[in-house]
Design a protein that fits this description.
about 0% strand, mainly alpha, Globin-like, about 130 residues, 6 helices
């Protein structure tokens, strides 16, 4: 079956659900996500909203997300267990999920945005740790 680009909320939902099914069973990422997320369906819908606004510029997501704040809180709750390699695993799995099912401009943008977001989140988490020490 030929791959197509991400063009609808249905595509975004498929991507997010496929990806997080893998995350939940990953040896390193699974325990963190499963330890934090209590209601997976609600969490997935929120992530679908987020990626829909990023990739399609549609949906209910505009202005309702603060990924830096959320990830700093997760780092604190997990006892500062988030480290750079986890972002590498996350990106590898995100890219793999995209490559398995999609190709095109939005699929490429999903990779680029995720790469930038991972770097920003990691550095902001590290900044947050320094702020908490002071």
């Amino acid at each position: 079956m030929p791959k197509q680009d991400i063009t609808s909320r249905k595509d975004v939902s498929f991507l997010v659900r496929n990806f997080y099914a893998k995350v939940r069973v990953h040896a390193d990422l699974g325990p963190i996500f499963n330890g934090i997320v209590n209601d997976w369906e609600s969490h997935l819908e929120r992530l679908i909203d987020f990626w829909e606004i990023i990739l399609l510029n549609t949906g209910p997501g505009a202005g309702k997300f603060n990924p830096v704040k959320v990830h700093k809180e997760v780092d604190q709750v997990t006892g500062y267990k988030i480290h750079q390699a986890l972002f590498g695993h996350w990106l590898e799995m995100w890219f793999s999920s995209l490559d398995e099912h999609f190709e095109g401009a939005n699929a490429h943008f999903a990779k680029e945005h995720a790469r930038k977001m991972a770097h920003i989140l990691f550095f902001r988490i590290m900044d947050g740790r320094m702020e908490n020490k002071n």
